[in-house]
Design brief:
By secondary structure, this protein is mostly beta strands. It has one domain (about 25-90). The protein contains 1 helix and 7 strands. The strands form 3 sheets. It has a 3-stranded antiparallel beta sheet with strand order 5-6-7.
C-alpha cells in the first residue's frame, strides 16, 4: 500500500493505492543535512509528507539555534536539502 498525493487549489488530496512504496526499505534511511541559518549539521529522516510523495512539504526546527526550516527530499538523487522557512504574514 502507498498513498498518492495530488495538489489542488484547495489543498492536498490523499488517496490510498495498492502500489508498493517507492522505497522498499520503508524510509528508514537518515540523511545528513545542515541548518540554513547556523549551518549546524545533523541527521534527518524523511517526513510522512515525503513518504506520501509531497517532497517539498517537510519542515522542522534546528536542534541548535531553534530556527524553522523547510526540508525537501529529492528521490532522484536520494538526498535532502534545507531552506530558510518562508514566513508569510496574514493581514
Amino acid at each position: 500500500m502507498s498513498i498518492e498525493v495530488k495538489k489542488t487549489k484547495s489543498g492536498l488530496v490523499l488517496t490510498k493505492t495498492n502500489q508498493e512504496p517507492s522505497n522498499s526499505k520503508g524510509w528508514q534511511d537518515r540523511y545528513d543535512i545542515n541548518c540554513p541559518y547556523c549551518l549546524e549539521g545533523f541527521d534527518c529522516a524523511p517526513s510522512i509528507f515525503h513518504m506520501m510523495g509531497a517532497y517539498e512539504l517537510g519542515g522542522g526546527s534546528c536542534p541548535s539555534c531553534k530556527e524553522m526550516m523547510e526540508i525537501h527530499f529529492h528521490p532522484e538523487t536520494n538526498s535532502m536539502t534545507t531552506h530558510k522557512a518562508v514566513r508569510e504574514s496574514v493581514h
